[in-house]
Amino acid sequence: MPNQLHRASLSLLLALGLLAAACATGPTPAPASPSPSDPAPSSPSAPPSDPAASPVLTPSEAVDGISVSVETLGGHCVQGSCDSIITIEPDGRAHQVKPEPKELGTVPLETMQALVVEVEQADFEAIKSQPFTDTCPIAFDGQQVIYTFWIVTHDEQIDSCQVVVDPANPLFIAVDAALASVAPQS
Q1: What are the backbone angles phi and psi of residue 162, rounded to the nearest 5°?
Q2: Average pLDDT over residues 66-89
Q3: Which domain holds residue 172?
Q4: What are phi and psi of 84, to 5 degrees?
Q5: Maximum alpha-carbon separation in the chain
Q6: 87-120 per-residue burial string, b: 16 or more CB within 10 A, e: under 16
Q7: What is the rounded CA–CA span in Å between residue 118 and residue 131?
Q8: How distant, in Å, are the alpha carbons of 21, 23, 42, 111, 162 from that of 180?
Q9: DSSP string, the chain
Q10: Is residue 79 part of a domain?
């Protein structure tokens, strides 16, 4: 069990590092994406209108139908709660929805393809089979992480305060790799 907690802590630190890096950048224009109150995307998003403005995948390279979002709740940050939502669209665009809308960059094609493979091969029933029975970390300034996978036929949500999230699972390794690989827009 200590190894699981250690691995979970490492994954959480990676996610927090990405969030801190995203928050440290200067203001950018709001993305042309849904607001946090809009429903989850059910189809691939269109690439930005100016393809030269950002390194997005071409329509023939875009991966159909899979979007991923990572929501963190709780924690202790200087400005208060460390809540955030980062979404990766099917075309590889990564953007922050919360605490403020912000374009983060693009997941490289190879990394996006690897993420799609892991989402398609994931045994969500097995992932959700081990209930989380401890105290949710938000009770003591820790973070709750909610992963949402929008797949063509359905949505899957994995909440770290409802099920034990194994950071060594290939699905979460692929999500972490995708978030870590986001290439900032130029």
Answers
A1: -115, -35
A2: 87
A3: 2-26+59-180
A4: -155, 160
A5: 49
A6: bbbbbbbbbbbbbebbbbbbbbbebbebbbebbe
A7: 22
A8: 10, 15, 24, 10, 25
A9: -HHHHHHHHHHHHHHHHHHHHHHHSPP-PPPSS--TTSPPP-SPPPPPS-GGGS-PPPTTTSPTT-EEEEEEEE--BTTB---EEEEE-TTSEEEEEESS-EEEEE--HHHHHHHHHHHHH--HHHHTTSB--S--GGGGT-EEEEEEEE-SS-EEEEETTTB---TTSHHHHHHHHHHHTPBPP-
A10: yes
Q: What is the mean pLDDT of the chain?
A: 74
CA 78 vs. chain centroid, Å, equals: 22
In the prediction, which pLDDT does 185 show?
A: 66
Mean pLDDT (whole number) for 123-147: 93
- pTM value surpassing 0.90: no
Whether residue 48 lies inside any domain: the answer is no
What mean pLDDT do residues 59-87 have? 77
Query: Domain count of the chain?
Result: 1
Task: Tell me, rounded to whole angstroms, the distance of Cα 160 from its chain centroid.
Answer: 13
pLDDT at 128 over 90: yes
Q: Which two tokens stand for residue 76?
A: 């202790």
State the pLDDT at residue 120: 94
Distance CA 44, CA 120 (A): 16
Cα–Cα distance for residue pair 8/4, rounded to 1 Å: 6
Closest CA to 180 of 112, 91, 100, 83: 112
